[in-house]
Amino acid sequence: MRHRAAFDIPQSLGFLPDTAVARHLSRGMQSGQESPPQVALRKASGSLPPEARWGTNAIRELVDEAMSRFDANRAAADGWLAPRLHATVRMTRAEAGDGRLWNHLAMLVAPDYVVWRHRGAEVAPSSRFSGPHYTQCFARLWWGAELFRNGSDYRPVETACALQDILNTTLRLDVIDHRPTAQALIRIFERLLSAGTPRPADHVNALSSAVNTAGSTLVYDVLAPDAPPLVEELQDWIAEREEAPAVPWDRLPEGPDDGRAPTHSVDILMPLFDKLLAEAPLRHRGRTPEQAGEPSEDSAVPVQRQGVSLEKDLPAWT
Fold it and tell me: Is the pTM here over 0.70, yes or no?
């Protein structure tokens, strides 16, 4: 049955400060028993320019369809929604780095999706409404699509979402900001999945930890140089959102044609990462983060040094 929101939805995305989330996010909302206090939340919100990319109708259609398609396997909704959310809410990394945007989406536009996707035994954690880019319900999907896409090709994003540990742990690594590193990891993860490797999540965590420990973004960029992003092509793709039709539901959309990770650089990293995978110690766990429905707090991945760059050399808000 098609899901429909039981509350009024603003026509456009906006900004909602963390303090407003802390004030108004109730246990009733986190359990799905209460609708968001729309009047108070709208009063606390800021507005965005009247542009099509900030419209909420297309976002609501996506989350409603995701809840209908994947009710029997909610984690599987990530791989479907991530590329379509990225292609619908088109923006620069600098814009996406503003957590107030994701707060607004989670609290006013689709709180029911947050609960549907992340509710455990009782409630959805508050960090799914307002939290780091690798934890917040919608930010993790958008950034997963942004960091694992290869130019306009979203197929690597589906692989990244196929194992929750990739989003829960690998997405946190600062080295993922280096596109050849991200694509080399995706190649290995694809191989693990296609080979039917037992407990692939353990291999994902082991390799992610080893890659993060072995080098930094700077080190990998020396070994396997990346190409600079094509900023004008990205800006054109964002501008085209004004006239773009809704993203397709039964095939992948096309992302910005802003350049692919150099193939020869990915090829250079593959033998190194294969060696790290072979030597990395596995940590067998009784429960995977997917089974628990939460990020792995005891992840083998060490604390990131500086975090994924959310700024880059791209324009900020216009």
Answer: yes
